[in-house]
């Protein structure tokens, strides 16, 4: 029997919206793909040193190493140097006793060396910080970890290494609790955590001890409220499912996925509940519909942006549910993206452009990391990591 592959759906684009953008990343596609198992259309999701299952976080570490939150396998994979060949097996394993194992907390009790659906991951003070959402905590290693027995040195969100209740079992949040923290980023000694289930961003000026309370909260007016959009309408303060926050041009950018926007603070906030200055993805501070209430995207609209990165003077946004990457030179109110990757034009959307996975397509990109002119993409829906050069 002869089998052929063809595109099953070719959407019609809305009139007047087909506008090309300058390329954000190299037009030849990713220079290295990890987790693709040789580009197989159908592959096993059983754990192996070179395979992944829905990776949602990636980190290009300044020391030259690469780290991936292999989310569906409940583990973290590390490469001592960024691979130069496709499907290079990982050198380092965290969260499981060996590369052939998987399961929440390694199918055992919660400990300082286990994870439960790991997501965000970032270099922090020479070491590593990992968001461990279903243990409702963030793990911090003072040095880059070396293997499964290397326990985290600091745990935020829980009082000890063996606790795992959301908000410590309380009905409200506190400065020292978390509920499904997804994203984590760093700025010197400062650690920034998207405490997604509590609809807020927490900031530690200098975390040093397990259970240490956060110093600042955004998205809520105080540390105890955990209501969606701070218990009111969508505003310049509120959030719904924040997934990533990064320092941007001396201020802050937050991917507020549930409100289909990116919030921008021109200066780094200094008080709880500080209002943002502008938003991307919506026309004003009160709107929240995906793709600005249209089926098709535009150079302004977004659909569940999950991840952010800085590439020189460009803010990179993973417009996750539109399966594309956007680049913004201007981050003023409701600004249009200047650059685009993974779709042919700003009106296009669709997982892998409604086709099969290729070197220049994505399917629900959940994580980003940028270092120099290299961008790493957690291409979660394709169970792979893309190492991509910036467009020249």
Automatic annotation (TrEMBL):
Residues 1-11 have a biased composition (Polar residues). Transmembrane segments: none annotated. SUPFAM superfamilies: NHL repeat. Residues 1-22 are annotated as: Disordered. One of its GO terms (biological process) is proteasome-mediated ubiquitin-dependent protein catabolic process. Keywords: Plasmid, Repeat. InterPro entries: 6-blade_b-propeller_TolB-like, NHL_repeat, TRIM-NHL_E3_ligases. It comes from the Bacteria. One of its GO terms (molecular function) is zinc ion binding. PANTHER family: E3 UBIQUITIN-PROTEIN LIGASE NHLRC1-RELATED, PROTEIN LIN-41. This is NHL repeat containing protein. It comes from Roseovarius indicus.
């Amino acid at each position: 029997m002869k089998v052929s592959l063809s595109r099953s759906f070719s959407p019609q684009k809305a009139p007047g919206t087909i506008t090309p953008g300058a390329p954000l990343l190299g037009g030849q596609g990713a220079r290295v793909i990890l987790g693709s198992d040789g580009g197989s259309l159908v592959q096993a999701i059983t754990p192996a040193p070179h395979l992944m299952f829905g990776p949602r976080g990636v980190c290009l570490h300044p020391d030259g190493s690469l780290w991936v939150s292999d989310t569906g396998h409940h583990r973290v994979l590390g490469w001592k140097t960024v691979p130069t060949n496709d499907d290079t097996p990982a050198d380092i394993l965290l969260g499981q006793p060996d590369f052939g194992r998987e399961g929440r907390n390694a199918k055992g009790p919660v400990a300082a060396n286990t994870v439960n659906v790991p997501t965000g991951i970032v270099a922090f003070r020479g070491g590593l910080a990992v968001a461990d959402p279903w243990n409702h905590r963030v793990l911090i290693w003072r040095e880059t970890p070396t293997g499964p027995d290397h326990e985290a040195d600091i745990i935020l969100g829980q009082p000890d290494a063996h606790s795992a209740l959301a908000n410590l079992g309380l009905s409200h949040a506190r400065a020292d609790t978390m509920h499904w923290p997804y994203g984590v980023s760093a700025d010197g000694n400062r650690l920034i955590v998207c405490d997604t289930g509590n609809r807020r961003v927490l900031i530690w000026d200098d975390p040093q001890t397990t259970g240490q309370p956060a110093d600042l909260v955004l998205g809520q007016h105080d540390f105890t409220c955990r209501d969606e959009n701070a218990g009111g309408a969508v505003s310049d303060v509120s959030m719904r499912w924040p997934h990533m926050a990064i320092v941007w041009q001396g201020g802050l950018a937050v991917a507020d996925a549930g409100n289909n926007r990116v919030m921008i603070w021109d200066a780094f906030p200094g008080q709880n509940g500080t209002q943002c200055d502008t938003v991307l993805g919506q026309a004003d501070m009160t709107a929240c519909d995906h793709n600005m209430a249209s089926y098709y995207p535009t150079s302004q609209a977004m659909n569940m942006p999950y991840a952010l990165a800085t590439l020189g003077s460009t803010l990179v946004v993973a417009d996750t549910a539109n399966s594309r990457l956007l680049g913004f030179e201007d981050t003023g109110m409701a600004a249009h993206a200047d650059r685009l990757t993974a779709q042919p034009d700003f009106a296009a959307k669709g997982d892998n452009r409604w086709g099969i996975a290729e070197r220049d397509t994505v399917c629900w990109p959940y994580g980003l990391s940028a270092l120099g002119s290299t961008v790493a993409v957690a291409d979660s829906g394709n169970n792979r990591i893309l190492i991509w050069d910036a467009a020249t």
